[in-house]
Amino acid sequence: MSSLKYLDLSSNQLSGLIPDAFGNMRSLENMYLYSNQLSGLIPDAFANMRSLENLYLYSNQLSGLIPDAFANMSSLAGLDLSSNQLSGLIPDAFGNMRSLENLYLYSNQLSGLIPDAFANMSSLQYLDLSSNQLSGLIPDSFANMRSLENLDLSSNQLSGLIPDAFGNMRSLENLYLYSNQLSGLTPDAFTNMSSLENLYLYSNQLSGLIPDAFANMSSLEYLFLSSNQLSGLIPYAFANMSSLENLYLYSNQLSGLIPDAFANMSSLEYLFLSSNQLSGLIPYAFTNMSSLLHLDLSSNQLTGLVPNAFANMSSL
Description:
Blueprint: E1 6-8, E2 15-16, E3 30-32, E4 37-40, E5 54-56, E6 61-64, E7 78-80, E8 85-88, E9 102-104, E10 109-112, E11 126-128, E12 133-136, E13 150-152, E14 157-162, E15 174-176, E16 181-185, E17 198-200, E18 207-208, E19 222-224, E20 229-232, E21 246-248, E22 253-256, E23 270-272, E24 277-282, E25 294-296, E26 301-305
Parallel strand pairs: 1-3, 2-4, 3-5, 4-6, 5-7, 6-8, 7-9, 8-10, 9-11, 10-12, 11-13, 12-14, 13-15, 14-16, 15-17, 17-19, 18-20, 19-21, 20-22, 21-23, 22-24, 23-25, 24-26
């Protein structure tokens, strides 16, 4: 079958090892083996499949290390190894895969640091490393990934500050960093991210003030900062986030008054400020939030509300 270009064996009950014989299919461009019961190591035979553009092996029982053999697959644009039992380090060999646009490694047992080699993957648009055991700092080398649109590093053991590197990722639309051990944000971490629409930072150890840098994120629609250790006042900078539809700040240590800045957030539909230390009166600011569907101010230290505070909230 030397001329075969497309092979789809997905969603069957195939078991055992992936045969080395696939390495002889030099013309194959698309190969789909996902959702089977394939086990064992990923064979080095894939290194011979230079024409392969898409390889989907997700939802099997593959184990062991990710082989360096992928570095020779110069035409590969899509690689999905997610939901297996792969372990060990993410190989530096990925840095040689300049044509790769989509890489999914989530839900494995990968450990160690995120390699700087990703910086060489100039075509990469989707990178999902979530639900592994990756540790250490988020590398500054992400700053070079100018084509990246979606980055998911959630549910790992990443620590330290969220770096300024993200500020250079002008194409990034979705960033998922939740459920790690991140401790803070550098002042310019999100300064130039004008394309970002979804930012998920909940369930970390973020502390200190909420930075004004969020004010420049004009496209942001979802912002999740809940279940951290953020303190101080809610910044007036939120007033500039005209596209924001969902804001989750619950379960922090925020204090002071609820700012009038919310009055300018005409697109906001969901606002969760519960389980903080907010005080004073519920302000007039809410009267202009006609799009608001859900407002949670529970478990704070609020003492009352101004007259007609909720007068114009027809969607609530």
